[in-house]
Give the backbone structure.
Amino acid sequence: MSRLKGKVVLITGASSGIGEACARRFASHGSDLVLVARRRERLESSKTSLEKEYGVRVLVETLDVRDRQAVNAFGDRLQVENRVPDVLVNNAGLASGLSPIFEGDPEDWDRMIDTNVKGLLNVSHRIIPMMVARDSGHIINIGSIAGHIVYPLGNVYNATKFAVRALNEAMNIELVGTKIRVSCVDPGVTATEFSAVRFHGDRAKAEAVYKGFKPLTGDDIADAICYVASVPDHVNVLDMIVMPTAQRSPYVLHRDE
Ligand code: NDP
Ligand code: 8X3
């Protein structure tokens, strides 16, 4: 039987891409889900299909992780309803823009820093105390290879993912002596809505990112996340980097002609 059966898994950014794929993978292992994002109708549609297909309980909520008050109120609700997460997947995130700092749009910087760093902190700050009180839980932070090496024009996005890696390390150090595990999963190029969001809806630019090679899919990363979540209690995967076979570093990516 899967170690994930019956666990309550909270996934932020569950309305598309990696988060949506994760919801399906955890449900296939028998986990109950708490799915949050801003686009509620997409979450509702996952809820309907996952409950029907896997017979798991799925709670969905419209939540902007940047809204600290809303995050705190949602945490209160989870506590009252006895749905304290066993696993928190801190996945909500985005890149916004791709230009040099001196030509960058500060609105893009705010969007990335507020979501990828402060949003992850808001959620972790509300959920970790509930895990500490029970002395159990697993936080899985979604970083990126962009958190290991800075690539041209990545600047602020890179900085946010370096920050995620630093926070992953900080959480691990702070939770030593507890049974709570903290892991980072760092994907390379993964075909999701990520590039469409980065290029502000420019589909042609977004599609070009994935041309000429086989990128990872949300399902590939969901598999990695489920693996990290399902190792025995005494095993803690600190950081897992996963790239498409065609990619060996942010700089080294083979495209067929
Ligand atoms: P998607 O754009 O497909 O998904 C991003 C998810 O984050 C959506 O569900 C979106 O939902 C949610 N989200 C964005 N902002 C907020 C917010 N303020 N509050 C709540 N939810 C939010 O991209 P991916 O699936 O690729 O991205 C998921 C994570 O993976 C991100 O952290 C990204 O940085 C990381 N990553 C992605 C890689 C890639 O190549 N795709 C590679 C490495 C890391 P909604 O808009 O409904 O709120
Ligand atoms: C997102 C993937 O290619 O921008 O983190 O590093 S990439």
